[in-house]
Amino acid sequence: MLLFAVTIVAANRRFTLVIDAGHGGGDHGAPGAYSHEKDLTLKYALAFGRYIEANCPDVRVIYTRKTDVFVTLAGRADIANKAGADLFMSFHINAVTGSKSVRGFQSWTLGRGEHSGDKGIKANLDVAKRENSVMFLEKDYKTVYKGFDTNSAESNIMYEFIADKNREKSVELSRLLQQYVCASTGRINAGSHQNNLAVLRLTSMPGCLLELGFISTPDEEDFLNDDASVQLYVQGIFEAFMKYRQHYDNDINVPYKPIKEAPVIPQVVPLDYKNIAPEAPASRKPRKKVEQKSPETNATTRKTEPDRPVASPQVADKAEAEKPVFKIQLLVSSSILKADDVRFKGLMGVDSYREGANNKYTYGASTNYNEIYRLRKQILDKFPDAFIVAFKNGNKMDINAAIKEFKANR
């Protein structure tokens, strides 16, 4: 009866998800070579939230920030607590000093950690007690919560039980995130961890802090700044979220049937981070490519319409075959799309390659970067987020290095 009295508050309402974009305003977070953590966390947090809103009408999404503003850790937790959130997810980007090779996706939950002892767990229990005191503002609380004493030994046991359950749920979400995000993005699984994290310690519901990758590692910073990566992360996080709900949310009433469209990518990262002029590479110096698993190229190339304004040179000799080939990446899908799929918006001759668990669709192919640059401008009205990628010997390569090689070969 006592447990029912406490949980009745959460019954008969929509599932509430609070999405927290770490840092903001004067707090830039971890610095990369050309980008900041605060911009990337906002970009990914908003994209994930919009995807949830589009796919899960029974979920209420609340953001701790939607713009480049500073919010205290206590303020972020307060937003979640006052909303009576069912789940709290905080987006961050990792960094280490003294190394440019550490990489991978991590997720963190509240725990004892290496040096924190039981302080974080004790503080979280106090938060649960304080947040539950809102019941005394309700009409007829003496009848609804009859026999409930927040200071009784019995209540303390129940609070500890609820706190333990929250941590159990958080750990399960962390495990699901590691599984699905790494599968979707191809990122290294850097593990699920626990520590005395303030933003989680101050919340009264299950929660998880996501470290999407290491901005201090060149290839990971590049990956995180690539708009195509946003869809990969969002898909993986969404899969984990839905599995979590299927396990713990008894009130789920909307079938898991995600929309086919890619998530809307908020343009919150300053555009000068990624501008590439037609005759020159980005201001960032090309770095030595870190060897990773090469994507499998799709052997089936669809027939190109004769009147399509696209360059597809026939490589006649070995020297030409060794040159980088530039293409325009249009979209990403976990499924194989037909040549006449409406998502291609009438473009014919679309090609694809496989990377991780996804099919990536490209348009055009040329060893002349300027031709592909001009072609991209022709289709921007249909694909405003399209960007140029490069391949060499069938393997994807760093775009800046490809442009540099193109200029050297001219």
From TrEMBL:
Biological process annotations from GO: peptidoglycan catabolic process
Residue stretches in coiled coil: none
InterPro entries, per database record: MurNAc-LAA_cat, N-acetylmuramoyl_amidase_3
Superkingdom, taxonomy of origin: Bacteria
Keywords (A to Z) from UniProt: Hydrolase
Domain called MurNAc-LAA: residue spans: 77-242
UniProt keyword Isomerase, yes or no: no
Region (Disordered): 277-318
Record EC number: 3.5.1.28
MF annotations from Gene Ontology: N-acetylmuramoyl-L-alanine amidase activity
GO cellular component: outer membrane-bounded periplasmic space
Catalytic activity: Hydrolyzes the link between N-acetylmuramoyl residues and L-amino acid residues in certain cell-wall glycopeptides
PANTHER family given in the database record: N-ACETYLMURAMOYL-L-ALANINE AMIDASE, N-ACETYLMURAMOYL-L-ALANINE AMIDASE AMIC
Name of this protein: N-acetylmuramoyl-L-alanine amidase
Organism: Segatella maculosa OT 289
